[in-house]
Amino acid sequence: MKEEIIIAGFGGQGVMSMGQILTYAGMKEGKEVSWLPSYGPEQRGGTANVSVVISDKTVGSPIIDSPSTVIVLNNPSFEKFEPLVKAGGKLFINSDLVTKKSERIDIEVIDIKATSIADKVGNPRVAGSVILGAYIEKTGIITRDSLITALIQVLGVGKNHLISVNEAAFDAGKNILLENV
Amino acid sequence: MGKVLMKGNEVIGESAIKAGCHYFFGYPITPQSELVAYMAKRLPEVGGLFLQAESEVSAINMVYGAASAGVRVMTSSSSPGFSLKQEGISFLAAANLPAVIVNIARGGPGLGNIQPAQSDYFQVTKGGGHGDYYTPVLAPSTLQEIVDLTQEAFRIADQYRTPVILLGDGVLGQMMEPVEFKETSEEMHLFEKDWATTGTVGDGPPKTITSLDLNDVSLEERNRKLQEKYETIKDQEVRVESYKMDDAIYGIVAYGTVARIVKSAVDRAREAGMKVGLIRPISLWPFPSSYIRKLSEQLQLNKLLTVEMSAGQMVEDVRLSVEGIVPVHFYGRNGGVIPTVDEIYQEILKLKYGVMV
Amino acid sequence: MKAVFERTSGLIDRETHYCPGCTHGIIHRLVGEVLEELDALEQTVGVASVGCSVLSYHYFNCDMTQAAHGRAPAVATGLKRVLPKERLIFTYQGDGDLASIGMGEIVHAAARGENITVIFVNNAIYGMTGGQMAPTSLLGQKTATTPEGRAAQTQGLPIRVSEMLATLDGASYIERVSTHDVPHVIKAKKAIKKAFQNQKDEKGFSMVEILSTCPTNWGLNPEESMQWVKDEMVPYYPLGVYKDHSYKGDGV
Ligand SMILES: Cc1ncc(C[n+]2csc(CCOP(=O)(O)OP(=O)(O)O)c2C)c(N)n1
Ligand code: SF4
């Protein structure tokens, strides 16, 4: 088992933390993991992305050329990363923010109105967690428990009031996927 | 101690502290700034001192002062700032002062950019500053290895009384990976520094630390001793790892971040039935020359390929190591571009099938 | 017979390498005497700079470390920050070293209020390298690199370091003294003593700028050199205290 995930969006959308949550969760489950952010000028233009590897074996390159999963939260990220998804891979899209449509038939595209759903559970800013919920439901790569443990760790004491709304977002993401099936 | 998830730059800082380094003099530069920030926060917690110098020049000279006083001390920078430290490193080497200097290299020359690069190889492995000197250079390729090598860096520095360079790049500095910190061994801390200028405090005649020797004959003698030390280091401190080389007929030589990418490419090539492996120098100086040569001879390697994030620097040492007995090819990306697994895989195919693939 | 003048234990008994009439020697003696009188030799680490005084570690009877050109204040910072606070750290720097290549280091050491003592020897020239212009060379002064005399239009104007550093809030004590006659030498010693005492009292950055001679590169004999300090240097570099307060003690 090896998942190579790229999460991309605007700075401030929580891209880095989403990656961190997955990485922590993988580590908690005893898997080999790595987290590599884009940094510097790339970030300034608005788009930020993070590469996460979760694997049973030692992580070779932390740099991902052909991701098995891509999560995009804005149009520029869609343009940059949609073509890179490995054949047979998955593309998660926040379709509230991304207007472009994928024409690829060799990958699975999962459109989620993540911002609207997040709004419903109480905070539009937890859209990322909606997608993470759907992502783990879809791939089974890590358990919900690990995701929650990781969330608590990443939020830290300063933001622990946000735990429950993120938890609700995870579940809403999971449910939307089940409904769509 | 369980595993923790940290950024490479922070891992360097924590490892240094665990190795007994309580003094750090730094200056901000991307992509190593997290290390400076980490030390600023952590060192006061352990009763140590962090000071932001007014320049890299000043930082390395503060290190010189602290090293003169006999403490474990560190500074860090990235390529342009590292160039500014060269004068100080030459002085440290000449005055036999131990210190650890980190270079989280970025694209150059000049101001270049802040993306990862390995184009400071010449500078770190061939002296870099003026005069006949070398500095041991350790090049980790994973964050766990940073833990081990940072501690080794301090051990080597103290044991041989020499500045030691820990070389990484933007990827290693910025990425997170689980690491486990270990208790450092006791002998790590058993270096008596009776040469330090700490004030005589009633303990014998005054001591002097200097790199100046106006007499040619005695400076030559000093230099001979330095060279003798370097010979011992060459003998004792070579570090290298090989991966899937046992039955290989092609060997890829790569270090640091690139070695990780090569590993993935080697795996792919192995799946395609190619007998290829990776030789990963961990100490860049001393360079594992005789290891590479012996392996080339024993396995009767067909070809070697050096992959670097540079226009071709380490490849010169690989060629010197094998002295023509094996052809040495080169593939490099630079300016902050990272070679992909696929690109390297294509290069491996070229080794076997020529350029026509 | 009663000895009226003894060699200070602050200096090591060896032949000097300074030129005849060079006041580096006098300044060495003053520093040595002060360290002896403060009973501080065993507590002191000096930092030699690059210039004629690069070999000052041959003379001072205390631990010494030698710094790269201009970097002595940074080296001193490193020493001061890691050693027990009773240790006294001083730099001994020429005007080329301190005011040209090392201007960054001295300004920031002062700005940080580093608790060190700086002995700044201003002889208005680069002595060691053969008499080139220093940042402190006077207008009209002929040097190897200003053969027609220093001209403001091309070489700019001399820097008054004490005045400049005194503007920094971090500096605690700054005084300019001279060595051109006995009364001034006595005053110079007082200033040096104060600069070390300040460090003992943890008052922060202290610097004594000492006007000094370079007969060899000025092309003057020792006597004329003393006169030149008095007639040419002192008017441009007025003697006196430029700063004397403890920013810590005063709670500024
Ligand atoms: C990096 C560097 N640049 C230049 C020199 C050459 N150099 C040695 S001493 C000196 C000037 C010293 O002048 P000053 O500080 O005024 O001291 P003095 O010799 O007059 O006492 C110079 C430029 C050097 N040693 N290092
Ligand atoms: S050259 Fe000038 S400063 Fe140097 S020792 Fe001679 S007189 Fe003194």
Proportion in helices of chain C: 25-40%
CATH superfamily of chain C: Thiamin diphosphate (ThDP)-binding fold, Pyr/PP domains
Name the average pLDDT of chain B. 95
CATH superfamily of the largest domain in chain B: Thiamin diphosphate (ThDP)-binding fold, Pyr/PP domains
Pfam families (chain B): PFOR_II, POR_N
Keywords (chain B): Oxidoreductase
InterPro entries (chain B): 2-oxoacid_oxidoreductase, PFOR_II, Pyrv_Fd/Flavodoxin_OxRdtase_N, THDP-binding, Transketo_C/PFOR_II
Protein name (chain B): 3-methyl-2-oxobutanoate dehydrogenase subunit VorB
What can you see in these coordinates?
The complex is a heterotrimer of chains A (181), B (357) and C (252). With 181 residues, chain A is α/β, with parallel strands linked by helices. Chain A is built from seven helices and six strands. Chain A has a six-stranded mixed sheet, with helices on both faces. Chain A is globular and about 40 Å long. The mean pLDDT of chain A is 92. Chain B has helices spanning 8-18, 33-45, 56-68, 79-84, 86-94, 121-125, 143-160, 170-174, 216-236, 256-271, 289-298, 314-322, 341-353, and strands at residues 4-7, 23-26, 49-52, 73-77, 99-105, 137-138, 163-169, 176-179, 208-209, 240-243, 250-253, 276-281, 283-285, 303-308, 328-332. Chain B has a seven-stranded mixed sheet with strand order 3-2-4-5-7-6-13, sandwiched between helices. The radius of gyration of chain B is 21 Å and the shape is globular. In chain C, helix 1 crosses helix 7 (182-200) and helix 3 (95-101) crosses helix 4. Chain C is 35% helix and 17% strand. Chains B and C meet through helix 3, helix 5 and strand 9 of B and strand 1, strand 2, helix 2 and helix 4 of C. Strand 9 (208-209) of chain B pairs parallel with strand 2 of chain C, so a sheet runs across the interface. Bound molecules: thiamine diphosphate and iron/sulfur cluster (SF4). Thiamine diphosphate is lined by residues 50-53, 69, 94-97, 121, 123, 125-129, 134 of chain C. Chain B: This is 3-methyl-2-oxobutanoate dehydrogenase subunit VorB. Chain B: Keywords: Oxidoreductase. Chain B: Residues 250-344 form the Pyruvate:ferredoxin oxidoreductase core domain.
